[in-house]
Each structure stands twice: as structure tokens, then as C-alpha cells.
Amino acid sequence: MAVTSKDLRNNPRLSGRPLTVVPRVGVNSVMYLITGLLALLAIYAVMGNVVGWGRERLDDLRYGTTRTFHARAVVGHGDNPAAPSHFIAMNLNRQVVVIYMPGGDSTQTRVITGPYLFGAGEDKTPVLLDFADLNNDGALDMLVKVKNEAIVYLNRNGQFEPISPEDRAQLMMSR
Fold it and tell me: Across-strand partners of 152?
């Protein structure tokens, strides 16, 4: 049996001197970090899909599968507050269509054909209506809203007409 000796005076644990710990970044720490980042990326992708699916279901409940929006307004086409005009805005296979019945009279039904919607999923985009007097002539004009755009139809001569470039320039100058 061999006997070995060790100098215990230079041992920091036994000599009372504080230990200096040098942090080491090992391969395991980097792998945990990468795994955590990949997990966050996967959660983000899944949540994006879930939110998109939920938004589409909410639009299905709100507007139906053929995106349809109803509104009533007194626009001066044979209507009055007791019998306002009824408007139906639809996204019919990517074609914007507005059907309106002046004074709620279905025998006087009129159809306004709007733009065709391009792009993936545009057949599910809701079409909304708003009414405001844009040209200050006392008659409510119709705004057809699709996504972040508004298509203006001016109320003239008992019907809604698409805005002309001259009208657009005049409206821009008055604002």
C-alpha cells in the first residue's frame, strides 16, 4: 500500500479563502435556450392559426357564410323615418353587391354592383355600409366599406352614383 501526501494548506476549501466561481456556459444551456425559442415560435404559429380560425367563426356568426350586412337609413328615396330604406350589402363570391329597397318597398328594389375582390380568402371578407353627408348637399351618401377601404356613392337624383374624379377632388379640397 502506497502512502501519498497532500498539502492541505493551499486548498481553498480548507484555508478559509473565498471560492471564485467562474460561470460556464455549456452546451446544455444553449440547447435549452434554443428549445425554448423554438417552443415560443411554435406557440406563436399555433395561436395565429387559432385566432384566425376564431375570427372567421365570429364573422360566420355575425354576417353568415355569404357575408351579408343589413342597414336601414332615411336617404330621401321615397322613404321617411316611419319607413326607412332597407340596404343589404353582400360579398357574393368575391363580388360586392348592394341591394336596397327605397322606403322598404320591395317592388322598387335596386341593385348596385361594386368591385370584385382579389386575393386569398377574400370570399369571406364582410362588406359594411355607412351613411354620411359627404358633399354637404343635405342627402346622405353611402359608404361601402371593405376591409380598410371605403367606396363612396353619392346620393344624386334619387339614386346612388359612384364618385367621379371631379367629385373626389372637390371632397378632398373641402376637408
Answer: 143
**Cell of residue 116, nine digits:** 370584385
Measured CA to CA, the distance from residue 23 to residue 25 in angstroms comes to: 7
| Residue 134: closest CA among 87, 80, 173, 92 | 173
Question: What is the number of other CB atoms lying within 10 angstroms of the CB of residue 83?
Answer: 15
Please state whether beta strands 127-132 and 141-146 pair in parallel, antiparallel, or not at all (unpaired). Answer: antiparallel
Tell which residue, 88, 85, 84, 91, has the closest CA to residue 69: 88
Q: Which CATH architecture has domain 68-174?
A: Beta Barrel (2.40)
Strand partners, 154: 161
Predicted TM-score of the model (pTM): 0.67
- Write the pLDDT tens digit of every residue in 39-88: 999 999 999 999 989 988 898 888 777 788 999 999 988 888 999 999 99
Could you state, in order of their start, the residue ranges of all structural domains in the chain? 68-174
Q: How is residue 136 annotated by DSSP?
A: S
